[in-house]
Amino acid sequence: MNFKEIDVKTLSEKQFGAVLFEDATEFSVWAPEAEMVELRLYRSQNDSPCETVLLEKDQFGVWSCRYPKRLDGFYYTYAFTYGEKTRETIDIYAKACGANGCKGYIADFSRTNPYDWDENGFVKLKSPADAVLYELSVRDFSADPSSGVSAQNRGKFKAFCEKGTKLLSGKPTCLSYLKDLGITHVQLMPLFDFEGVDETDPRREYNWGYNPANYNIPDGSFSRDPSNPELRIKELKALISALHAEGIGVVMDVVYNHTYRTEDSCLNLTYPDYYYRKTFDGHFSNGSGCGNEIASERFMVRKYIIDSLCWWAREYKIDGFRFDLMAILDIDTLNEIAVKLKKINPSVILYGEGWTGGGIALPFEKSASKYNARYAPEYAFFNDGYRDAIKGDTFNDYDLGYISGNYHYRQSIVTGLLGSANWAGSPCQIINYCEAHDNLTLWDKLCLSAGGFSADDRKKMSRLAMALVMLAQGIPFIHAGQEFLRSKPLENGFDHNSYRSPDSVNSLKWYLLDQNQRESDYCRGLIAFRKNHPLLRMRSFWDIEHAAETLSSPDGTAALKLSGDEEMLILINPIPRAKMFILPEGEWYLHVSDVYASEKPLATFCEGVIVPPISAMVLVKKTA
User: Fold this and answer.
1) Where are the beta strands (DSSP E) in 469-557?
2) What does the alpha-carbon distance between residue 574 and residue 616 come to, in Å, rounded to a whole number?
3) Which residue of 161, 430, 465, 497 shows the fewest CB atoms closer than 10 Å?
4) Which helix (H) or strand (E) holds 349?
5) What are phi and psi of 531, to 5 degrees?
6) CB atoms within 10 A of CB 378
7) Contact yes or no for 217/192 (Cβ under 8 A)
8) Residue 610 is inside which H or E element, if any?
9) Whether the Cβ atoms of residue 146 and residue 167 lie closer than 8 Å to each other
10) What is the dihedral of CA 128, 133, 139, 145, to 10 degrees?
């Protein structure tokens, strides 16, 4: 590289890509070592270029031109010459594209807002601990006919805009169901333009979307017409507006740790090798397990990631971001991201996976690993230790967890309930969960590891797992359908890694609500109870230390007392027999039991209470 990183810092506020003016269009791209860059304009995605323009290079490596006409509605690419090779690619800064993302499209974004766009803004939070996250795939949400969504909108952005969908039994589904459940944020699996699904015939293929192609463009497979570049933008905004209108925020699952392609990715064709880390022997480092890893610590890579996130936050009103394999990214980049995003939305919620997919070419002290969480204080990290204590080792199908009979996990459960992960700087840095899109669903895991128990007992285990997540200090996270026993069955077992499996495996089977309504109601009650009791949403370890007390309890069980404006008892009995717990002095009102969870008390107890088998119980006493 023949440029200095210090020089490009003058570009920190530079806007790249195609920028429309009243009577002109400005193009700019950073490629300091290219020998020539051509702009190629197209009237449609499948035509030959209608015009080619040579860009001019400045002293900072920026190639640009000002075209004396508004070109909204045109497609464009760049052709980069390095040595004897000239290769054409989409602009890495493109904000719109045609089907399958081969050419950029120049869109007038002022024409893409829904009619109610200005009425519905970001969802505000006083604290990250007030969030209840619900992970969801756009496609899975409505692909099954039982969703009640019209056929043309199934698996699409527009499914979120259909109100009043329901099962034949009358139970609400989709948007109505989410509103009724009480979650605060939907975390949508990758929305950006990804590879793995042919957008011209998306029903033939399935992919979760962790295959980044174009970071700043919505994926066309979720649009009713992927050949229309502006329609996918309008439809995604309509989805966001529909959720915001119901008071539900939108978290975007982002994958800035790698790209699907390496040598021939648009990043590498624009500036070979700069955007990726390499090992000492010159090979691409592969900490993602997908062939490469992004060099986030380099100034212009950092700027690219920050500009991309700010674009999603400003233009689409995205409320938060979940970072895939976040430990591949460097801490300084993440901290700068937080500063920039909080200026746009002070309530932005930021979290991610505090691990990698393999060894990375970045010093450990710079990695955004969960073990460095204190150096990235605005971010929360998935608490995989608590996850495995609840249900057993995620990577061992038959390993038992606390809910299914391994009571050696008791102390880990108490620690998790207190939000006391030894790597976190505060409970707001902890994402508590027991199921996510990858690996077995909780119900499938229980069917294998606890197969000797009855189906009724396994349902009790599922409800107890939900209680352990919702009653823990930190931020609760639910995988869509977990609360009504979502399963991903195969002919001879269950799907561990359904990233390419068909809709028959991945789609949400809404009809399961008819079989498991009690489980869904229990989750809804827990969410409502959590929202009404600040003792479950403490913001610092100091608060927890001064409010929480671990009480004595029968072997294998757990009992906590929380004190503040009220007193709360959390009693946990994972054992398949009822257990007697001695209560502190006073009258205690029962709000959560084995099948009941509500802000409305069910009964009053004094001196002692019997906790049913494999269940949690929560009792409250007013102190004022």
Assistant:
1) 475-479, 489-490, 493-494, 548-551
2) 8
3) 497
4) strand 349-352
5) -65, -30
6) 18
7) yes
8) strand 608-611
9) yes
10) -150
b (16+ CB within 10 A) / e for 596-620:
bbbeeeeeebeeebebeebbbbbbb
Report the distance separating Cα 310 and Cα 469, nearest Å: 31
Instruction: Tell me the backbone φ, ψ of residue 390, rounded to 5 degrees.
Output: -65, -50
Distance CA 492, CA 422 (A): 40
pLDDT for 33-57, tens place per residue? 999 999 999 999 999 999 999 999 9
Q: What is the pLDDT of residues 113-130, one digit of tens each?
A: 999 999 999 999 999 999
Q: Name 41's bridge partners.
A: 51, 76
Give the closest residue to 428 by CA, choosing from 374, 494, 379, 362.
379
Q: Which two tokens stand for residue 301?
A: 């890579």
Whether 608 contacts 582, CB under 8 Å: yes
Q: Are strands 430-432 and 380-382 parallel, antiparallel or unpaired?
A: parallel
Cβ atoms of residues 82 and 38 within 8 Å: no
Name every residue whose Cβ is closer than 8 Å to that of residue 517 and which is 6 or more positions away in sequence. 171, 484
Q: Which residues contact 546 (CB under 8 A, 6 or more apart)?
A: none
Q: What is the CA radius of gyration of the chain?
A: 26
Pairwise CA distance, residues 270 & 80, whole Å: 7
Catalytic residue (one of 193, 324, 435, 483):
324
Residue of 39, 88, 87, 28 whose CA lies nearest to 63: 28
Domains 5-111 and 547-622 share a fold: yes
Please tell me the distance from the alpha carbon of residue 461 to that of residue 547, in angstroms, as a whole number: 28
353 as an active site residue: the answer is yes
Alpha-carbon distance values, 5 to 9, 11, 32, 206, 210 (Å): 7, 11, 11, 41, 30
Eight-class DSSP state of 122: P
For the segment 266-316, what is each residue's pLDDT rounded down to a tens digit? 999 999 999 999 999 999 999 999 999 999 999 999 999 999 999 999 999
3-state helix, strand, coil in the chain (%, to 5): 30, 25, 45
324 catalytic? Reply is yes
Please identify, in words, the CATH class of the domain defined by 5-111: mainly beta
| Alpha carbon distance 79, 349 (integer Å) | 38
Catalytic residue among 353, 483, 543, 567: 353
Measure the CA–CA gap between 622 and 193, rounded to whole angstroms: 52
Where are the domains positioned within the chain?
5-111, 547-622
For residue 476, the SS3 value is strand
CA neighbor of 210 nearest in space, from 195, 228, 223, 229: 195
Question: Are 468 and 461 within 8 A, CB to CB?
Answer: no
CATH of domain 547-622: 2.60.40.1180
Q: What is the pLDDT at residue 6?
A: 55
- Cα–Cα distance for residue pair 262/487, rounded to 1 Å: 34
